[in-house]
Amino acid sequence: VVQALEKIMKITLIQPQYFNIWEALGLAYIGAFIKKKFPGKLELNFHQGNFDEDRTILREAKTSDLVAFSCTSPVFRPALKLAQAIKEIHPEVRTVFGGFHPSAVPKDCLEEEAVDQVVVGEGEEAFLKILLGEDAPIVQGDRFSDLNHIFPDRNLIQNIRTIDLCERQIGKRITSFQSVRVCPLRCSFCAERVVTGVYQKQNNPVRERNPEHLLDEIEWVAREYRLDYFKFADATWNTSIEKVMVFCEEKIKRNFNLPWDANVHASFADKNMLEAMKA
Question: pTM of the predicted model, to two decimals?
Answer without folding.
Answer: 0.87
